[in-house]
Amino acid sequence: MTRYPLLPITAAFAAGIATAPHFYLSAWEHVFLLSIILLLTALLARAGRAAQGLLVSLLGFFLCGTFLAAEEHAVRPPGHIERLARQGRFVLEKPSQLLGWVRTPPVERTYGEYFDFELSEAKQEGQSFPAQGAVRVYYFPRRADARRPPDPRSLGVVYGERLALSLPERRLRRPRNFLDPGAFDYEAYTRRRGIDFTGVVRAEEVSRLPGHGGNRWGAALHGLRSRLLGYLDRRFPAESGRPSHGAVLKAILLGDDNDLDLDTESAFQASGIYHVLVVSGLHVSLLAAGLFWLLSLVRVPNGWSTLLVAGSVVSFTAVAGSGTPVVRAMWMVLIYLVARLVYRQRALLNSIAATALFLLILYPSDLWDASFQLSFLAVLVLASIALPVIQWTISPYRAASRELDDNERDRNLEPRQAQFRMDARTLLDYFCDPARLGARHWRWLRSGLKAMVSGTTALLEAVVFTLFMQAGFALVMALYFHRVTWSGVLANLLIIPLTGVLIPAGFVVLAVSLVSWPVAALGGGLLGVLSAGFQWVAYWSALLPGLTRRVPTPPVWLTVGFLALLVGLAVLVERRSRWTWLAAAGLLGLCIVLTLAPYRPLISPGKLEVTALDVGQGDALFVAFPGGKTMLVDAGRGPDFTDEFPRPGFDLGENVVSSYLWSRRIKTLDFVVVTHAHVDHYGGMRSVVGNFRAGELWFGAGSKTAAERLQAASVGRIPLREQSAGSRRELDGADVQVLWPSPDYVPTENENNDSLVLRLGYGGRHFLLSGDAEATVERRLLNTGMALRSDALKVSHHGSNDSTTAAFLQSVSPSFAIISVGPNRQYGHPHEETLERLRQAGTRILRTDQDGATTVLTDGNRIEVHTFRETLRPWPPFAVF
Predict the structure, then answer these.
(1) pLDDT digits (tens, 9 = 90+) for 349-376
(2) Is 700 within 8 Å of 741 (Cβ atoms)?
(3) Helix and strand numbers, DSSP H then E, in the chain
(4) CA dist., res. 700 & res. 682, Å (int)
């Protein structure tokens, strides 16, 4: 602990943050306990029991973590908009006018744009009051119609511009999570970025005000960024047939990933080098290392070179957009530079710990940010394991490979390195015999072979470095992104040197572009070549078979074991213990387990399960059969569906449905079902069939085109099976019956009535899944005389009043009704008439917008109902002073 004192301190502080949601202590109770700990630590130190005092002090840092985490979550200043809303002084559902300034420049998307808006004043119902907080504002331009011309493509707002936003009722909302296990935590994401609400505006609802917000430095910086981005847009226009060159360069150099297309992003993700598209630690560290090297060539004193590097890093961070990852990397480098000057030795690990502690004090919730965990876990692995292993094993031989023909150097080396030099000279003498080759060829061949020996040791160092870097990424990538990518070990061998060339070259060209466009245009050719190199490496390595896998959520034992082995390996490497290689073998074994994911799915054996997921205004039903077979009925909307506020362009198939399946440790699906070809039902299925190998795809009349599109996007070209009434399958003892469409059904313009209607039975219990079928289909089903009685009904068409008729309900007679519906009664769903009919039928109503993922289980006799809402534990109340 005395060698790296900040490591246990930071670990204790982080543990406090992690357990804060389970602590029921007020601010005064925290202060009281901290006072006792401080007194006890002082007494132990005075008694000469420093070790015990240090251990007690760790408890103090633990409580500091719980205190600051609770304070960040619960405390808002008096004029904060969130606090005003909780007090009832500001009502989100009512019309309001918000005054403030544009905090971030607009980000363009296919659906329009969004920007963050800093509040200064709020008006509602004739009252005006100062307000603090921020709103993420979305703008959706409307197309022309008979009553009005089209909206402008962009609002044209800029950083610092003061605006008044006039919002009609229900246009301002709190960020909301999809209430499903494994779903992306959008509420935490917005909270960490200082966003309190989201809103949608129309062009006529935005008024410009006199004055300016923000600061002059911010305005100048955003103006500079705009000019630099403009250069890359002009130099690499989309119409040139090279739309991704400029997009890749903007991402790597300036942190602007808005123009990256889906194929490019997917290739970089699959190849394990996506981190290069996010301006972060790699970019900052390469910049700092390159500057130190240049300054050392001209013999600049250490103090001045440190100051110049620090200034360059801060400037780079500002120009690169000051995103969270690059700001985090900036602080890490700055703290390391200070520690390097002051302490000289062992600065790296303490600098990393100091940076983490500093950032967690400022923003405790960053502990749960995936990029925070990726950054620090990877850097800790590199600093505590990779670099020491290289220095221990390979670096001595790399040093020994220099000047091989100088026999005098052998005397100053360890016996193994000296023997290595002698063996290398013996091989050189054998292959480079002057009598056979001639003097000129002998010298050339000997010089080339000596360079090959030195280069081989350097390559081994690079392989070990990238291998441990990928190991540092592996666990967090599996936990948050359900991806393990070992192709990055090879790809990073090329990408890191390319990045080292691109960053300085790119900023030289960008700087020249501010002065002379023609000269910068010439330099742009080099940038285009480097961008093409990045993309070639990404696409090539993404195609390597078996090295990229989508994996389910690792179990707790694997996560704990992986982290424990990393810590143990770091300790053993530090001591250069003979047990190091055993720990390394254990870590390798866990990496294999993490990649192959041989754990069983979390499914209740002997039970039929239907779970309706919360996918907003759409449907997604997971079915597990008694013997372990699985089925997915619909998968919500895809990324091209932008009608749902406030999460436009969000791929539910990837971020909600697939994440849920991975949280259940599902690796394959036996059946996927598309009820009908509405995008809020099958749009997300494209991502699902691309992530999971499926046995069959079922579809009904009218959905063949949609099914064929999904087949083309699927893993292994999933077989298609058209279904109609009368089809029946027995799966693990459960009965699956197709009730609609009839064999003679002809699709109409109303695609809701194309829906597959399924009735699942096990023992004496039945579940009816009705898609979006409307009253016309319900009447046809009643006329057929088929058995409809079911214990649970998935209410058709999100609870619309054009379905779930009284006669149909009487025939089905469900005990439970599940309504898959979006929040805030979008499109009026569920309609009050439908809810009233269900109440009169004595049916218990379950809604995904309120209850979250809803599970109905049966063993053939008993029925169990569980909701995700029941599992959520709110933060304990935190009483301030």
Answers:
(1) 888 888 899 999 999 999 998 889 988 8
(2) yes
(3) 31, 26
(4) 13
